[in-house]
Design goal:
single chain; 83 residues; alpha+beta; 2 domains; two-stranded antiparallel sheet; 2 helices; 17% helix; Rieske Fe-S protein
């Protein structure tokens, strides 16, 4: 058994996450997200999806990036006309 680094629970089904040369131990995905997910610089939400990064700053979505002044970020690229 290994103790979760977020909540301290000593759990027989804990798991490891290897990231940037460091090994982390968690008892649930919830604890892993709490410890490792970046935080949106605009709204404060945990970025658990793809998110967007602008100049080394993380946002949960294109809307938040635009609200913070990154106007080049779009949710999707317009469909191109078929030839």
């Amino acid at each position: 058994m290994a103790a979760c680094e977020t909540c301290g629970n000593d759990y027989d089904m804990s798991f490891e996450v290897h990231a940037q040369g460091v090994v982390h131990t968690f008892d649930s995905f919830q604890c892993a997200i709490q410890a490792m997910a970046p935080i949106c610089e605009h709204c404060g939400a945990k970025v658990i999806g793809h998110g967007v990064e602008v100049d080394r700053t993380w946002y949960c979505c294109a809307h938040c990036a635009r609200e913070a002044g990154s106007n080049a970020i779009v949710d999707r690229v317009p469909a191109q006309a078929s030839a």
